Amino acid sequence: MSSVRQEGKDQIIFVTKEDHETPSSAELMEEDLDDPYEERGLILPNGEINWNCPCLGGMASGPCGTEFKEAFSCFHYSKEEVKGSDCMEQFMAMQECMQLYPELYPQDEAATQVQSSEAEQNSPDSNATHAISNEESQE
């Protein structure tokens, strides 16, 4: 004997072996675009960004959520030949915010090494440092 139980928004149906032997009479409901429980992907049917998508890992709601949304929106809507190349300012603001919360946004070692090597290359002493290392390698 089958039974139906409602738990919040979910309906749980227990069926018997005999129930499985007959064709289903279930009717599919049309998708409700306003249903807050409906799972959606990153991009909504209307083309907007779904800030509630679990795929974002909560980035849109953390302490740097505003900066993340601005950077991600800029990238998503970018029309530049190199997509997002017009969004450096927003991504820099997001990165600066994340550095204020290292416990929430840990930096991996590879990213830290890349950042420090880029900073070294852009420093005023970088030409002198490279010249010294080149002389040492020729000796």
UniProtKB/TrEMBL annotation:
Tell me where it resides: Mitochondrion intermembrane space
InterPro entries from the UniProt entry: CHCH (IPR010625), CHCHD4 (IPR039289)
* One Gene Ontology biological process: protein import into mitochondrial intermembrane space
Instruction: Kindly list the residue ranges recorded as spanning the membrane.
Output: none
Specify where the region named Disordered lies, as residue ranges.
Answer: 108-139
Show the Pfam families listed in the entry: CHCH (PF06747)
Its GO CC terms are:
mitochondrial intermembrane space
Compositionally biased tracts (Polar residues): 110-139
Q: Which residues form the CHCH domain?
A: 64-99
The entry's keywords: Disulfide bond, Mitochondrion, Oxidoreductase, Protein transport, Redox-active center, Translocation, Transport
Give this protein's Gene Ontology molecular function annotations: protein-disulfide reductase activity
Write down what this protein is called.
Coiled-coil-helix-coiled-coil-helix domain containing 4b
Write down the species. Takifugu rubripes (Japanese pufferfish)
The gene is: chchd4b
